[in-house]
Amino acid sequence: MTETFEMICIVCPRGCRLKAERTADGIAVTGNKCPRGAKFAEEEIVAPKRSFTGTVRSVFPEMPVVPVRTAGEVPKDKVKEVALLTRDVLLTRAYGVGEVAVDNVCGTGVDLIVTADMRKVIGS
After folding, report:
1. How does DSSP classify residue 82?
2. Which of 10, 28, 54, 104 is the most buried (most CB within 10 A)?
3. What is the rounded CA–CA span in Å between residue 93 and residue 117?
4. Domain containing 102 — which CATH number?
């Protein structure tokens, strides 16, 4: 049985329209203008991943919420779990850009990092 998937590659600005077919022999990709497109399609079919961006709370009234993101991509089926975890995070000190707020978020091996310099806002 052959499964067919159509998607747009997001690896580079070209946005190639990809067609991937999964057969008993593996995955065949067409429409890609570079090898990265084929790799993207295969990963999207076998083990899709996504970046996560959101906010967490802080104890500082000058900055009650702080933007965060994953330092890499997490399995797509873990994104909701990561989002739910952020509701329980409370930052109690001033973080700089790129500092880890939660390491190994939800057991994904990827850290949740701060994307704003709290020190500039809070003055710490």
Report:
1. H
2. 54
3. 12
4. 3.10.530.10
